[in-house]
Amino acid sequence: MKKKILLFFIILLSFNVYSQDGKEPKTQPSKFLSKFYYSINFGGIFYPFSNNNLKEGFETNTFSRNWFSGKLGFGYQINNDLALQFGVIRPAAWFKYDNINNIGYDRSVWINAWYLTLKKNINLTKKLSFFGELGAANVTRVGFSIDDEIIYPDAHFGSLLYGFGFNYKLNNRWKLALNGTFFPKSDKHNQPSISQTSFGFEYHIQKISKKVALEYENNKEYFFPKNILQVSYGTSKIGLGANKFFSMNMRVGNFESFGIPVFWLGDVRAENSFSITYQKTAFRTEKTFSLDWGASVTAFNTEATNTQVLAFSIFPTMRFYLMRRNGFDMYTNYSLIGPTYLTKSNLDNLKTGPKVTFQDTMGLGVFFGKNRKYNLELRIMHYSNGNIFTDNAGVAVPLQFTLGKTF
């Protein structure tokens, strides 16, 4: 079952990545992409963990709850009122049992869920619609042990997911979303119910007229690279500050979870890394956004045991242009769930899961020089299976310095 779920994600991602047919200008999305959208939502998550979930003889009087959570996903519009969606729901920080049995033991419970749902819209006005959501989720919980005694076991199971909410249409591309999402409790797995309330947006890629698409593509005012070849090097000697900040794991003063929860850290730390990356533009707008596909090979060695690993990845990249000036164009990019094969598993004696996993990257860069032939970028990377499996310690690759050539 786990392999089938993973294969589904890879196949769906491949459709997304390679869907541009090459006959249309890059400013005109393919038939698949024209029905594609992504959604980003943040809000509160609620799960009533208690001492009843723990092994008899273990309890605490206090709990640490971080309610902030995200719901990130992609959708495919089957018709105007029906869509297929998949994505992930997870908290920004894990639920923690404080000072268990008053002997100083603090332990966390990790939980997240990958979902596949159908979403049905009912139009209330021209701009406002009500929707219902129903489907299945792959729920993963990582429990904890004390002195090799399991106090709350790991769990991995399928669950019903249902929800409802409202969309408000700003224009043909942008919709605001208010979501309520629910998972029933599982007595079999000693798992309480989960509910989430979140607010965010949907961005729908839309076809435009052929005339406008050609005007955008022929407009030389805004640079978009056709191809990029990059080489990158990173070292842990400069620390993991960027990785910790963007995963909300930075400690500042009395704050143990300072930062912005838009990326991931990982228990395995890469000491040195070297990457070769190729990217090609699949779709772009007139000025600010492009969807690229890419392939990379990354070599890294781990800090704790100096294990040598190769990672082979294919991936999509969303690139957002932040500033365009006479001498340079500045952008940020974000890549999620790039199918990856690692040559080794269970790194640094930690349970990182199977060799087939995912690559995530986030970067800030510039194109510069005559005809924007050159590229500089700062990038952080992460490898994990997204808690599809209970073994998912994750790999953190510190800041990489990247030099690229466009052509």
Description:
With 407 residues, this protein is mainly beta. It folds into two domains: 21-204, Porin; 219-406, Beta Barrel (Porin), CATH 2.40.160. 8% of the residues lie in helices and 57% in strands. It has three helices and 22 strands. It has helices at 2-18, 210-218, 241-246; strands at 36-46, 62-64, 68-79, 82-91, 95-100, 105-123, 128-142, 144-146, 149-152, 155-169, 174-183, 194-204, 227-235, 250-252, 255-258, 268-284, 289-302, 308-324, 328-342, 356-368, 374-384, 395-406. The strands form four sheets. Strands 1-3-4-6-7-10-11-12 form an eight-stranded antiparallel barrel. Strands 13, 16, 17, 18, 19, 20, 21 and 22 form an eight-stranded mixed beta sheet that branches. β18 (308-324) and β19 form a beta hairpin. The protein is globular, with a radius of gyration of 22 Å. The two termini are 43 Å apart. The model is unreliable at 1-9 (pLDDT under 50).
Briefly characterize the structure.
The protein has helices spanning 2-18, 210-218, 241-246, and strands at residues 36-46, 62-64, 68-79, 82-91, 95-100, 105-123, 128-142, 144-146, 149-152, 155-169, 174-183, 194-204, 227-235, 250-252, 255-258, 268-284, 289-302, 308-324, 328-342, 356-368, 374-384, 395-406.
Topology:
Blueprint: H1 2-18, E1 36-46, E2 62-64, E3 68-79, E4 82-91, E5 95-100, E6 105-123, E7 128-142, E8 144-146, E9 149-152, E10 155-169, E11 174-183, E12 194-204, H2 210-218, E13 227-235, H3 241-246, E14 250-252, E15 255-258, E16 268-284, E17 289-302, E18 308-324, E19 328-342, E20 356-368, E21 374-384, E22 395-406
Parallel strand pairs: 16-22
Antiparallel strand pairs: 1-3, 1-12, 2-5, 3-4, 4-6, 5-6, 6-7, 7-10, 8-9, 10-11, 11-12, 13-16, 13-22, 14-15, 16-17, 17-18, 18-19, 19-20, 20-21, 21-22
